[in-house]
Write a structure and sequence with these properties.
The complex is a heterodimer of chains A (about 250) and B (about 220). Chain A is mostly helical and about 250 residues long. Chain A has helices at about 15-45, 60-85, 90-120, 130-150, 155-190, 200-235, 240-250. Chain B has one domain (about 1-220). Chain B is globular, with a radius of gyration of 18 Å. Classes of the chains: A mainly alpha (about 250), B mainly alpha (about 220).
Chain lengths: ~250, ~220
C-alpha cells in the first residue's frame, strides 16, 4: 500500500481503512488482553481490601472503566455520525454505526456491575440515584439509535437520521443528568451516594487506569472489526473488495 | 415565513376539524389510561393524591407520542409533503406550524381535561393549578419532540413503537420538572424554579427543534 502523501483523511477511504485496521486489530487485542490481565491481577490480588466495603468494592475495577466508556463512546458515536452527515463521509457513518452496539454493551455492563456492587454495599440492587438513572437513560438512547438505524432500509437515510438523533441525544445528556439530579435530591433527601469521600489507594487507582486502557483497546478492536465487516458489505461493488475475495479464494 | 406558518396551521386545523373523532382519540386515551391507575393500585385517596401528577404527566406524554405519528404521515403518503419541502418557503416554518397544530389539537384538550382528572384523584386546588400550569409549559415540548421523532421515523414499518423508544428519553426532563412542580407546591414550597426551568426547556426546544425537524424531513423524503 502506497502511503506517500499521508493526509488527515487518508484513512477515510474504505479500502485504506480496511488495510490499516487489518494491522491495528491484532495490536488492539494484544493491548487489551495484556492490560486487562495486569489490571485484574492488581485489582483482585494486590490492591488492599477496603476498610468499610470489604472485598465487594473490587467490582469497581470493571464498573468504573465501563461507565467511562459508555459516556465517551456516545459522544464519539455522535461525533462520527455528525461528520458522516455533514461531509457525506461514508467511513465516518460506518464507524458511528459500528460504535453503537459496543457503547450499549458498556452501558449495560456498567449498570449490571453497579447492581452487583450495590447489593452487598447498599443492600439493594437498584436505587434511583442520579447517576444510575442517567446511565439507564443513556442505555435507552443507545437502544433508540440502534433501533432507528436498523429500521431504515435505505443506508444513506439510516446514517443521516441516526446522526441527527445522536446529535440531539448528546445535547440532551447533560440536561437529563442535571434534571435527574435535581429530581433525585428533591424526592429522596439524604440517600446513598456514589461519591466517596476517602481518597483511593494508589494501587487501586493503578488497577483502574490499567482496566480503562484495556477497555479502550477492546472498544477499538471490536469497533474496527465491526466497521470492517460493514465496509465489506457496503463496498461489495468496489474493485478492491472483489480483489480481496479473489485472493482469499486463491489461498 | 409568517404566511407559510399561518396557512399550514389553518390547513391542519381544518383537516382536524373534518375528522373530529380522530382528533379526540388522544383525549379519550388520556382519560381512559388515567382511570386505569386507581383500578390497578387501589382506591386509597392519599396514595392517589401523591401519584396524580406523575400519572397525568406520563399519560399526557404517551397520548402525545401515540398521536404524533400521524402528523406527517398523511402528507407523506399523498406526496404533498415533498411538494411543501420543494417549495422555496422555509421548511422550518412548516415544521413549526405542524407542531403548533398538533399542540392545539392534542395538547390543549389534555390541559382542559386535567382539572377533571384532578377531581378524580382528589387533588387540592393549588396543586391542580400547578399541574395545569406545568402542562401548559410542557405539552408544547412534547409536541415538538414528538414531531422530531415522527419526522425521523416517517414511513417506516413499526414506526409508532420506534418513535416512542427514541423520543421518551428526550422528554424525561420535561416530565421531571412538570411533575416535580406539583410536588414542591404540595410540600409547601415555591415551584417557581420548576416553572423557570420548564420555560427554559420550552424556549430551547422551540428554537432548536424546528430546524432539526426540517432536516429530518429532508432526510426522510430524500
Amino acid at each position: 500500500m502506497n502511503l506517500q502523501g499521508l493526509r488527515l483523511y487518508t484513512f477515510a477511504a474504505p479500502s485504506r481503512f480496511y488495510w490499516l485496521t487489518g494491522w491495528l486489530i491484532p495490536l488492539c487485542w494484544l493491548v487489551c488482553l495484556g492490560f486487562a490481565a495486569a489490571g485484574l491481577y492488581i485489582g483482585f490480588f494486590v490492591a488492599p481490601t477496603d476498610a468499610t466495603q470489604g472485598d465487594a468494592y473490587r467490582i469497581i475495577f470493571i464498573h468504573v472503566p465501563t461507565a467511562w466508556m459508555s459516556m465517551v463512546l456516545y459522544l464519539v458515536m455522535a461525533f462520527w455520525a455528525g461528520i458522516g452527515w455533514a461531509f457525506n463521509a461514508r467511513m465516518a457513518s460506518m464507524l458511528a454505526r459500528a460504535i453503537a452496539p459496543t457503547g450499549a454493551m458498556f452501558t449495560f455492563l456498567a449498570l449490571w456491575t453497579g447492581a452487583i456492587w450495590g447489593k452487598p454495599t447498599w443492600g439493594t440492587w437498584w436505587v434511583w440515584d442520579a447517576r444510575l438513572t442517567t446511565e439507564l437513560i443513556l442505555l435507552f438512547l443507545y437502544l433508540g439509535y440502534i433501533a432507528l438505524i436498523n429500521a431504515i432500509d435505505d443506508q444513506r437515510r439510516a446514517d443521516q437520521a441516526g446522526a441527527l438523533l445522536a446529535l440531539v441525544g448528546s445535547v440532551n445528556v447533560p440536561i437529563i443528568y442535571f434534571s435527574v439530579k435535581w429530581w433525585n435530591t428533591l424526592h429522596q433527601g439524604a440517600s446513598v451516594s456514589v461519591t466517596k469521600g476517602s481518597s483511593m489507594a494508589s494501587t487501586m487507582l493503578l488497577a483502574m487506569l490499567l482496566m480503562a486502557i484495556a477497555c479502550w483497546a477492546y472498544a477499538f478492536a471490536v469497533v474496527f472489526m465491526r466497521a470492517r465487516a460493514l465496509t465489506i458489505e457496503r463496498e461489495s461493488h468496489a474493485g478492491w473488495v472483489a480483489e480481496l475475495v479473489q485472493r482469499r479464494i486463491a489461498r | 415565513m409568517p404566511e407559510v406558518f399561518s396557512s399550514v396551521l389553518a390547513r391542519d386545523l381544518k383537516l382536524a376539524s373534518r375528522r373530529r373523532i380522530d382528533a379526540l382519540l388522544p383525549l379519550a386515551f388520556f382519560i381512559v389510561a388515567i382511570s386505569l391507575f386507581p383500578l390497578g393500585v387501589g382506591p386509597e385517596p392519599g396514595m392517589l393524591r401523591d401519584m396524580a401528577p406523575g400519572v397525568v404527566w406520563v399519560c399526557a406524554l404517551l397520548a402525545s407520542m401515540l398521536s404524533v405519528g400521524s402528523l406527517f404521515a398523511g402528507d407523506h403518503a399523498d406526496g404533498s409533503l415533498e411538494q411543501m419541502l420543494l417549495a422555496p418557503q422555509s421548511a422550518m416554518a412548516l415544521a413549526a406550524a405542524k407542531c403548533t397544530a398538533h399542540w392545539l389539537v392534542t395538547g390543549l384538550p389534555l390541559i382542559v381535561a386535567t382539572p377533571l382528572v384532578g377531581l378524580l384523584f382528589d387533588m387540592s386546588g393549588p396543586a391542580l393549578a400547578a399541574l395545569v400550569a406545568g402542562l401548559v409549559l410542557g405539552t408544547p415540548i412534547l409536541s415538538l419532540l414528538g414531531a422530531l421523532g415522527a419526522a425521523l421515523t416517517l414511513g417506516l414499518r413499526s414506526g409508532g413503537m420506534l418513535l416512542i423508544l427514541i423520543v421518551l428519553p428526550l422528554a424525561i426532563p420535561a416530565l421531571i420538572f412538570g411533575a416535580g412542580a406539583v410536588g414542591t407546591i404540595e410540600a409547601g414550597m415555591s415551584a417557581s424554579g420548576h416553572f423557570s426551568l420548564l420555560g427554559a426547556l420550552l424556549i430551547t426546544t422551540a428554537i432548536g427543534v424546528p430546524p432539526a425537524i426540517a432536516a429530518a424531513l429532508r432526510i426522510s423524503t430524500e
